[in-house]
Amino acid sequence: AFRALHAARDAQSRELSQGPLRKKARKHREGRGPAALAAGEPEHDPLAGLRLSPVVAFAAAAAREGDWDNLVTCHAGDPTAYTWSWKRRALGRHRLRQPGWPRADAPSSSDRAQDPRW
Fold first, then answer.
1. Which of 33, 44, 49, 118 is spaced 20 to 30 Å from 63 by Cα?
2. Which residues form a coiled coil (predicted)?
3. CA angle 64, 65, 70 (to 5 degrees)
4. Which domain holds residue 79?
5. How many beta carbons lie within 10 A of that of residue 16, not counting itself?
6. What backbone phi and psi angles, to 5 degrees, belong to 35?
7. pLDDT of residue 105
8. Based on the structure, what is the number of domains in the chain?
9. Rounded to 5 degrees, what are φ and ψ at 56?
């Protein structure tokens, strides 16, 4: 979750959600099939692979916030930048990545956010 806290009025604080992670975890677990579960694969936290890593940088714009996602976050160790909708208080529809970057050795978005050349 991504939280915005209001210093004076707690009622103004907001939390933006990644959505129904338990439902996504259930679908992922079902996709493995009963054979994988019967083969004795170790049980692990089903939500661990779905949660985003901690936010290390973000940017927001108030202009036309009702028309499109208006927040972007960079996460530790993740080369993808994620958009968020303040109006819907949820993870946005877009993932931002450079098309030529390989998944495994791509610089993380947090590295780019902290590098003055970007």
1. 118
2. none
3. 120
4. 2-114
5. 18
6. -65, -40
7. 52
8. 1
9. -115, -20
